[in-house]
Amino acid sequence: MRAVRFHGPENLSLDVLPVPDPQPGEMRIRPLAVGICGTDAHIFHGEFPANTPTVLGHEIAGTVEAVGVGVKGFREGDFVTVQPNTYCGSCRYCRLGREHLCPNLRAYGVHMDGGFAQAMGVMAKAVYHVPNALDARVACLAEPLACCIHGMDLLAMRSGTSVLVIGAGLIGLMLTRLARLSGAGLIVASEPNALRRANALAFGADRAFDPNEPATRQALDNAADGLGFDTVIDAVGAPTTFEQALSLAARGGTVLAFGVAPIEATAKVRPYDIYQRELKVVGSFINPYTHERAVSLLPQMSLEKLRIAAFPLEKFQEAFEAQGAGTAAKVEILPQH
Prior knowledge:
Quinone Oxidoreductase, Chain A, domain 1; 11 helices; seven-stranded mixed sheet; six-stranded parallel sheet; 18 strands; 2 domains; Rossmann fold; alpha/beta
């Protein structure tokens, strides 16, 4: 089979590998659509740790091709998606029910071979059924949606409050949509790309501003009546956007650090500001126990309206270039094309 493997920073190649045989408790999946995540881009550029060589791709939808001994509830041909993270089950965090914080966490597409391949072996406990009516290009977005649901759970946002979402890429759009479904009173998006600003409005934002415009800071202050926003979501993951999020939060507000920043990136923070304004800063990491809910919510998310750029395996370089250019709402690889 063919697969796109990571061999080190700036080094991806299309390799020929053996088709995996499912071991007991595992199954073999035939990936149909696999999203390129911001994390994949960080891995490619050497900004996020990953094993080498490893088949990338952790946003996966496909069909079951074979099941191993002991697998129940799945059969050949089932339409499925994958929750890519696995845990040791025995550390303190796992025993406290916080498995996603497990120091021994391993993920398909990061530490183990993922979905940028014509076939993939995966533990059955990480696989979820998906309605057959759903397009595979939408079904593979269950994984990032599950991460967004976890972020919203951490916010415990109250109905009628104000929300600022910084960044209107796919993650920002999902969080905007979830905020609207959660009853936000005012949702404002900050995004430099005009097409993405239009998407934000279509996904539930009341207003959308270009942060590069000189008048935007005043416009944001005016939108929040000069009080700041009750909730500010940094869906970008850059020092500048994190600093902006802190500065635009209302007294007693909450800042959600959601976007994945490069590991070595740092931001300037005034501890007194957090203290005096009684701000809450919350980090959101992956998707503990939210994948099932993500599958249920997918039909309500309107993701089929987005421009999804899809590429076959052999055009993986073009796919990563498109992801970096930000010309599409989402870039995916279709391994069977």
